[in-house]
Amino acid sequence: MKRPLGHWLLLTVAALLLVAGAGWLYGRYGAPPPPVDRQPSNSGPRSHAVAIDRADAVLTGAEQLARDHPGEWLFQERLANAHIARARLTGGFADYAAAQAALDRGFAVADKGTGPHLTQLALAMAMHRLGLAEQMADAIDQYAVRPEIEDMTELRLVRGDIAFYRGDTAGAHARYAASGADPAAPGIALRRAELAARTGKADEALGLIDGVERAARLPNAQLLADLALRRGAIELRRGDRAAAARHFDRAARLFPGWWLIEAHRAQIDALEGREPKAIAAFGRIARTSASPEAMDALASLYRAGGEAARAKLWADRAGAIWAERYRLFPEAAAGHAAEHELAFGDPRKALAYARADVAARPYGLPRTTLAWALIANNDPQGALAALRPAFASGWVSAESHLAASQALLLLGRADEADRERETALAIDPHAADASAALLWFGH
Fold first, then answer.
1. What are the residue ranges spanned by the domains of the chain?
2. What is the DSSP string of 417-442?
3. Mean pLDDT score of the chain, rounded to an integer?
4. Please, which residues have CB within 8 angstroms of residue 33's CB and are 6 or more apart in sequence?
5. Residue 72: which H helix or E strand, with range?
6. CA-based R_g, the chain, Å
7. What is the assigned CATH class of domain 258-319?
8. How far apart are CA 224 and CA 61, in angstroms?
9. Looking at 109-159, which runs of residues are DSSP E strands?
């Protein structure tokens, strides 16, 4: 039984453009027009708790079907998709690992030339496994029965994603333009927004997100909350914390209980000096979601407040989770593990993780983390070399320019360092604030 490629990949497009890791990096331009303010339809859960309950019910049913049909790969694919849907809500890697195990079982029983390539492609992209994703795309291209036009269009878009994460911004643009997709369709509009945001065109990115919201048919609460979260991340990265807070608050109203939204709101409290409120929020999130990012944020706040023992407690807990995630999916965890080690651990470990991340995804964000790791290991010249391809690709990031400034300062090139710092502050006036060390989400 054939599954449309677009069906499975569109289910995960929000995750692909938001994880990873991955961080939105923005320029500073004129004020954008007010965003659209759609209200959610009744087509989906209206809270995170209800969404989890539904995901659990779907997963239970998929597990039973997989047990009842052990020799049929389609039921393993269905089970994998149930785990992926739940993982998107929880942020945990256990469901992603269970999804991969189900896909492995599916391939083991599938006839040659068949199997769950479509879902494996989506999971590989979510886990930053670009080589595996490309293998799946090649396998789909070899199907005896060619996929339908809309499926081939989506496949071309995914190849554009792969180009982007490999640091080829121009190639991503070209593949998106040649995909045959309607430029206003959500699948390409959100990708174009990602490119715009990461190349200094924040207002263009916001406009594209607004267009997705305007065009959405029967938008559910989670979709609208996700779009609000994206807008807030853009505003945060260009230093407009008040605008970011408004978007995060709207996301919380639309889809209450989602830990990721609450983490962004807590981060605003931390950045604005409301430490007790931020500590309380991150503590709740760390205990209920087991998010290592939240634990790292909590540890940062305790350390800033002089509570070394509590800081170490939470940093150690986060470190253990990052190590386990790296064991399960090294490509997806490497960048986060590098940041954790830079903040709380061993600079040499941070460098190893950062190099692994760049090897998997040599685009601007991992290159920036690598630059900081090289600086921490007394290699400012290497840091500049790591950043050079990112800047050449059109990457725009206050953090990247700050890293370049620090490297140049260590090399005694003070005038160049000052220019890089000024560039960073032009992107985000708060980039050099001491509170920037509290940023763990949205970057």
1. 1-23+32-254, 258-319, 329-443
2. HHHHHHHHHHH-TTTTSGGGGG--S-
3. 92
4. 207, 210
5. none
6. 21
7. mainly alpha
8. 28
9. none
Question: Domain 1-23+32-254 is in which class?
Answer: mainly alpha
Q: How far apart are CA 424 and CA 404, in angstroms?
A: 10
Q: Which two tokens stand for residue 44?
A: 């989906």
Tell which CATH architecture fits domain 329-443.
Answer: Alpha Horseshoe (1.25)
Confidence of residue 21 (pLDDT cuts 50, 70, 90): very low
Residue 207: pLDDT band with limits 50, 70, 90: very high
Question: Which residues are CB-contacts of 57 (< 8 A; sequence separation ≥ 6)?
Answer: none
HEC states along 334-346?
HHHHHHHHHHHCC
250 pLDDT more than 70: yes
Contact 325, 126 (CB under 8 A): no
Domain 1-23+32-254 and domain 329-443, same fold? Reply is yes
Phi-psi category of residue 290: left, alpha or beta, with phi > 0 → left and psi -120 to 50 → alpha: left
Gap between the Cα atoms of 96 and 90, Å rounded: 11
Cβ 208 vs Cβ 35: under 8 Å: no
**Rounded to an integer, what distance in angstroms lies between the CA atom of residue 428 and that of residue 257?**
30
Q: Mean pLDDT over residues 355-365, rounded?
A: 98
22-78 residue pLDDT tens: 333 333 344 555 668 899 999 999 999 999 999 999 999 999 999 999 999 999 999
Three-point CA angle 99, 365, 388, nearest 5°: 140
Q: Output the pTM of the full model.
A: 0.91
